[in-house]
Amino acid sequence: MQQKKLILALIAAGLMGLLGACGGGAAGNATPAISTTTGTVNMSMTDGPSDSFNHVWVTVTQISFHTDANAIWSPSDASWQTTILPAPITIDLAALNNGAMNTVFANMNLPVGSYRQVRFFFASDSDPLDSSAQATRDNEATPAPLQWNDQVEYINASGALTEAPLEIAYPVQGIQLLGAFSVTAGGTLNLVTDFDLDKIVVPYRSGTMQAFTLKPNLNYFDLSNAGGITGNVDATKLCTASSWPTSAPFTPPAGCAFNLVVHAEAVSSDGLRYEAVRSTTVKPDGTFTLAPLPIRDSSGNPVSYDIIIRGRQMQTLEVTGVTPAGTYTGSNLAGATALQASGSPLPIGIVAEYGSQLATPLAPLTSGNVVFQQTLTGGLPHEIRWSDTDPLSGKFGRQGLAPWNQNFWLANTGLNVAPYTAGGLAFSLATPTEGNGNYSVIANETAYYNFGTAVSLLTPLPATNAATFTPGAPTLQAGVQSGTVVGTIAIGGTGIYTEGEVVVARFAHIISAQSFNLTANTAPTYSITGLGAKVPGAYYYAYLRLDNCTGTIPGTTPTNTKCSHMIIPISGAIDLRTATSAAGMNVSVAL
């Protein structure tokens, strides 16, 4: 789980840069002719912010490209252009922030053509530890090799540095990146794949175990049309490492801000809201770099962004109408737009905050996301905060992560807004149309859905309480029908496992899950409905996750839970491209 993000970045970068020779294609399609003329592709990786993870390592093994966005992967389909790395590569995605890039694949020769799909393949967290992961050291006081090929390092509920595997759901199908880029004869294409750790690495609870899984949502940028925006906040208002508590109850320090994230936002394709195009964290010295950012639209016109700066215990800042600038030489950016002079840092106001949580699980599927918005008078809603839901519970699943509360935290205040001018920024307090401390909330599913109707989230009374809400149900996209998968689980023996879930996955990430009873000699059934169906890409896989988290790890202070864990694939695919149901997805489990 922990390596989801890294993998995504690596995969996206690798896919675009490594076209080679073998593959898988769309069922029923004739194998397209492969051009013998090539162009050069350089693929770099970059990352969005993470306010929860110190490190996210992933180990990439293979990349494949296809000209058909709906092609289904098969290793025997030669219409896929595939490159297997000479040796797997392990990368820390969390290190690729604030404009940093890693050019994993340079000077790659791709056949001329228009590509629409990339699949990234990586070593599973349950595979034997690869040599590249063995050669990578963690961040413990005494550094040691990674324990898993894909690994997350985070601060747990007791304030201790903790490591966990990053589960890649059914990794044999690879992680999909959709887009459109063309390779021309003799041309050079410099691409950067962006993965946002906070939106890709998803915490979930399996019994008492804090776990992580990957939810790919990748973007890529062409550096020939990219620039950046830089800025700095008042670093004297930021919490320092020495201010954090070292003993229970581990509450965050008062009077300072932390976990700052900066978004460059543009109007969404449906014209209904502002959404983040690129995000980054703020460094301890208060500086940040948002790059790469597209500087021209498809018509060649300059693009401007609204900049949102939010964090824990701080008032949200908004700078409107900022146009990025600059030129890339390789991975180096020169001439980026500066929000303000370094001697005039952006102000930080320390404010109260409150927790939020879904009153009921996200439906019809458990794996989705929730967006918290605030709106200036006469404008469109801006994305302030964003969170995935726990794919098992359908609620927020951050119980084991700092800042040590299962709720999702929101600033109990309005906005501090300034229009961008090169001569300086003049901020003024603005009450959003939702009201100070209030938000409009929208929710969506992972695939084939539109956001549901916005609901209002009001400051709880007293403000120390958590605000609960029921999101508007996401709706299926036009032309998509609701599909169902059903099956029976035959269980034999008693074994060591106490908990189990049926998981439905697509492109290596979880779509939904359902718990079942592991009582010996029973045959529980499962039914998962709401899957996108009767569309070309509606192709899913399923597996069982079995856990027992009743043991402890000897000698640890505080005592850490020891979990036994097993993944059992359910044979066959859930093909809902032309049907609305898939029955007989049965599996036998000998415990």
| DSSP summary: helix tally | 3
| Helix content range | under 10%
Please count the beta strands (DSSP E, at least 2 residues each): 40
Overall average pLDDT: 83
Terminal CA distance reads 24 Å
The class by helix and strand makeup works out as mainly beta
Question: Segments where pLDDT lies below 50 for 5+ residues?
Answer: 1-31, 399-405, 553-560
Strand content: over 45%
Shape: globular
Radius of gyration of CA atoms, rounded to a whole number: 23 Å
Largest sheet: 8 strands, mixed
Q: Which key phrases capture this entry?
A:
8-stranded mixed β-sheet; 6-stranded mixed β-sheet; 48% strand; mainly beta; 591 residues; globular; disordered N terminus; 4% helix
Describe this structure in words.
- This protein is mainly β and 591 residues long.
- Helices cover 4% and strands 48% of the residues.
- It has three helices and 40 strands.
- The strands form ten sheets. Strands 2, 3, 5, 6, 7, 8, 10 and 11 form an eight-stranded mixed β-sheet that branches. A six-stranded mixed β-sheet has the order 15-14-17-18-26-27, with no helix packed on it.
- The longest helix has 14 residues, at 4-17.
- The protein starts with a helix and ends with a strand.
Describe the secondary structure blueprint for this structure:
Elements: H1 4-17, E1 38-47, E2 53-66, E3 81-92, E4 102-111, E5 113-122, H2 131-134, E6 151-155, E7 161-167, E8 175-183, E9 188-195, H3 197-200, E10 201-206, E11 209-214, E12 219-222, E13 226-232, E14 258-267, E15 274-281, E16 287-294, E17 305-312, E18 316-322, E19 327-329, E20 332-334, E21 337-338, E22 353-358, E23 368-375, E24 381-388, E25 408-411, E26 415-419, E27 428-430, E28 439-445, E29 449-450, E30 455-457, E31 467-469, E32 475-476, E33 481-492, E34 499-506, E35 509-516, E36 525-533, E37 539-553, E38 560-575, E39 581-582, E40 587-590
Parallel strand pairs: 1-9, 7-11, 13-21, 18-26, 22-31, 33-39, 33-40
Antiparallel strand pairs: 1-4, 2-3, 2-5, 2-6, 5-8, 6-7, 9-12, 10-11, 13-16, 14-15, 14-17, 17-18, 19-20, 22-25, 23-24, 23-28, 26-27, 28-30, 29-32, 33-36, 34-35, 34-37, 37-38
